[in-house]
Structures are given as structure tokens and as C-alpha cells.
Amino acid sequence: VAQARAQAAQASRPPAPPTRKAAGFIPWCRERILVRDQAWSLAGHEYLQEPYEVATVHPNIVFEKAAQVGGSTLVLLAAFYACDRWAAKVIYYLSTDQDAFDFSNDRVNILIDESPYLAQLVEERDRGRDNVGLRHVGRGSLFCRGMFTRRKVKAVDADVLVLDELDEADQHNK
């Protein structure tokens, strides 16, 4: 009787939400990404091991960090991974349109240019079009947007949202 009750109680519980396995993210970076003409590695950035392990697992992740410690690169690589592996539509928000433009032209373009795998994913869909606000990555999409106006914040639906430097954004548009 006790076993039957336990089985009935278990059956009446809602199923646990699905979780994404992160096991593939670090190897994906190691095998496919070049940074400053070197194979991607956490050497010198060992403090990022745990953030890389959880970056593609939990649906809500917050990093509070100092400037220039590798956090934006981590989140940008996770965005590329989501586009590649899950055909995700990712919006990478920065505080202003100019910040988004600069980030896209600098950080995004450099990763694409230095990593043949990413270059191939982008070329397959964009066929040479250069749009700093939107990159088609494999079957996914990567938008770089500023949060300066509410219209731009609400204009696109997404599977993944990245809010980089949120403290610098217009607080009414968050």
C-alpha cells in the first residue's frame, strides 16, 4: 500500500522542467573558436571555468563583474552556441545603439573573422551581406541592439536575451 501511494504521489507531480546540458559548450568553444589567432582556452582565465559551465544550462543567469574580465566574450560565445546548436534567435542588448554598433563591428566581427567555423555559419545564410544589427548564424539569428528607446527593445521576439552593461542603460527601457 505504501509503495502504491508513493507511486501515485510521484505520478501526480508535474514533470520537472527540461534542462539543457552544458557539456557541449566548453568543447564547442575549444574545437571551433579562435581568439586573437589562438585556439580558445581558459588559460589565464581559470576564474571563468564555472561561468562557462553554467552559461548554457540555466534559463536565467546574472553575472556581476568588473570590466574587461572576459564576461562579454563568454556571453557572446554562448549566443553563437545557442544560434548554432538550438537555432535560437538571440538579442544581445547594450545600453545604446552606438554601443551595440561598436560591439558588433568590433567584438562580433573579430570572432567571426578569426574563427573559420563561425565565418562559415554566417556566410551560409548571409552570403556576404554585412548588417551590424543582425547576423544569421547557422539556423539562428544574432541581433545587436541598443536599449535607448522602448521601440527597439520591444521590436523583436527572442529565444535568448542578453542584457550587457544593464546598469548603463536607460532604466525606463529595461
* Percent in strands: 5-15%
H and E order: HHEEHHEHHEEHE
Strand order of the largest sheet: 4-5-3-6
Task: Summarize model confidence as the mean pLDDT.
Answer: 78
Number of strands: 6
- The number of helical runs is 7
Share of helix, binned: 40-55%
Low-pLDDT ranges:
8-23
Alpha-carbon distance between the two ends: 53 Å
Biggest sheet architecture: 4 strands, mixed
The 3D shape can be described as globular
Specify the structural class: alpha/beta
Describe the structure.
By secondary structure, the chain is of the alpha/beta class. The chain contains 7 helices and 6 strands, in the order ααββααβααββαβ. The strands form 2 sheets. The protein has a 4-stranded mixed sheet. A two-stranded antiparallel ribbon has the order 1-2. The longest helix is centred in the middle third of the chain and has 18 residues.
Please provide a brief summary of the model:
It contains seven helices and six strands, in the order ααββααβααββαβ. The chain has 174 residues and is α/β, with parallel strands linked by helices.
Task: Break the fold down into its secondary structure elements and pairings.
Elements: H1 2-12, H2 25-32, E1 34-35, E2 38-39, H3 49-54, H4 71-86, E3 89-94, H5 97-114, H6 116-126, E4 134-137, E5 140-146, H7 150-154, E6 160-163
Parallel strand pairs: 3-5, 3-6
Antiparallel strand pairs: 1-2, 4-5
